[in-house]
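In response to reviewer comment 3 from the previous cycle, which asked for concrete evidence that the modeling workflow produces usable outputs, we include below a single protein chain processed end to end. The sequence was submitted unchanged, and the resulting structure tokens are shown without manual editing.
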Amino acid sequence: MKFLIDECLSPTLAVIARKRGFPESMHVSWLGLRSRKDWLLVRRAIRDGYVLVTNDTADFTPLMERERRHPGLICMNVAHGLMNLAVQTSLFEHALAQLADIDLAGQVLEVTLTSDHTVRVNRYATGVR
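The workflow returned the following structure tokens.
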């Protein structure tokens, strides 16, 4: 498995993924994909086999749902005003722990930090049926 970290998240997450045994993980800025349209990032992730990691659930989930197959999507949702590097790192670590024994292909993994600082995890299938 390898991850493509969206530009709305820190490149540190790609470094964490690499250290955790996913050496092909990348940040969009490392690939020269900053400011690209979301659908172009989805196409690139699918073409190159990346699980896409973002905090833009509203835009990326519908794009992935249109696809017959995709490597997976991780959405890190945070209550307004709580996003920072420590939160990103913590939520990504939660996501990685969830992926220990599963293949995320065709699925979305949402990791949400609520306003009361509770972390919720939800995994569901997507794709054209």
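Helices lie at 12-19, 38-48, 57-65, 85-98. We consider this sufficient to address the reviewer's concern, and the full set will be provided in the supplementary archive.
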